[in-house]
């Protein structure tokens, strides 16, 4: 197959890639909504124009708000690089079985990461494991992309 | 049209997509410049090696610097996922009219978001509206991408 | 060459682009590892469930941890937009010589940025120069992408 032809709904690897991109984007947006919910529940706003009552003051240290924000930032650090590396890895024409399972590993482990970090706090090493499965899988894809460029 | 052929300057949807990617990237870079300007105006630096005078100390709580940084982070959370989802949505061969207007909605509302957040502070719900128009449009595209992957 | 055909290992510009995407993704992941190392060395954890001993408390102001986190955030602000703009710039069929050297400029200057910011602190303007070389190169590509969309 020529490289450009790999970008096709006929290509199972590409379909798997776009599925997880869509799902993980929606998951990341859920972090924004969750941050907003906690801001209202805890009356913790970062901007004067957001304060619902003149009695409130801006506040930056609510533990529930900050926990969701840390989980969200971790998404930016890990999911966003996956979005581009997953596409480029797809263009290296990898084994279908391996590629589909790597995407699945990233997708599921990033959802688990969110659940154990920002929804129901689970003791370590739950979050560390979820973090490293996604990071390891994406790093492997990045190495394959680098190898393909030689 | 075959999927790969959608990545073409002949495709009006793709041209609209790349236009907004270019514009929004430049807009995001403007946030870096604006942060730097405020750091100099307010003499608020985050690193010892950045201090312009031995009398200064590192400072992390200047409201003007932090406001631009919050706006910038919000860009990372919303514009960066749009960059990939907009491309994948283009590859689903959507209606030209709908796609071009969704991209326009994201592009314009993210520029408005920056203006009312970090340039001239406008009372709510200005920022919330701009935020949700872009988030809603991108989430719709993500759902279409997920649907196309079935 | 038709646009879609530019996405090909036969295209030297595309090969250069994917090489730097792979390298810079691995570099960004190194920031996560480095943050983790400093957290252990300085016993500075952001979550109660991460504390290794009941005597520790969560801590958010360790200068070494925060320095790496600032460098990492700067990567998110600059490398992630490059990932998409570099791809779209490749699709504008640019001069091979110019494109390959722009990608090289971004790649090398972002690695230098990390080294002088988060590994061995080098006095300014080292970091500022590295920052502006990458920002300027990516902004030029973004302008070419916008021009191609007219």
TrEMBL record, chains A, B, C:
Key words of the record: Acetylation, Endoplasmic reticulum, Membrane, Mitochondrion, Mitochondrion outer membrane, Transferase, Transmembrane, Transmembrane helix
InterPro entries referenced in this protein's UniProt entry, alphabetically: MAPEG-like_dom_sf, Membr-assoc_MAPEG, MGST1-like
Regions annotated as coiled coil: none
Organism superkingdom: Eukaryota
EC number: 2.5.1.18
SUPFAM superfamilies: MAPEG domain-like
One Pfam family per UniProt: MAPEG
Subcellular localization(s) per the UniProt record: Endoplasmic reticulum membrane; Mitochondrion outer membrane
Segments passing through the bilayer: 17-38, 79-96, 102-122, 129-149
Function of the protein: Conjugation of reduced glutathione to a wide number of exogenous and endogenous hydrophobic electrophiles.
Protein name per its UniProtKB record: Microsomal glutathione S-transferase 1
């Amino acid at each position: 197959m020529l490289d450009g032809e790999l970008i096709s709904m006929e290509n199972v690897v590409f379909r798997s890639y776009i599925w997880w991109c869509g799902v993980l984007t929606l998951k990341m947006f859920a972090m924004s909504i969750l941050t907003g919910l906690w801001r209202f529940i805890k009356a913790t706003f970062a901007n004067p124009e957001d304060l619902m009552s003149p009695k409130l003051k801006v506040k930056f240290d609510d533990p529930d708000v900050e926990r969701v924000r840390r989980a969200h930032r971790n998404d930016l650090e890990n999911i966003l690089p996956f979005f581009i590396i997953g596409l480029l890895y797809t263009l290296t024409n990898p084994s279908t079985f391996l590629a589909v399972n790597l995407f699945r590993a990233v997708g599921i482990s990033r959802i688990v990461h969110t659940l154990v970090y920002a929804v129901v706090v689970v003791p370590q090493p739950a979050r560390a494991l979820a973090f490293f499965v996604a990071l390891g899988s994406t790093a492997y894809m990045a190495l394959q992309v680098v190898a393909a460029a030689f």
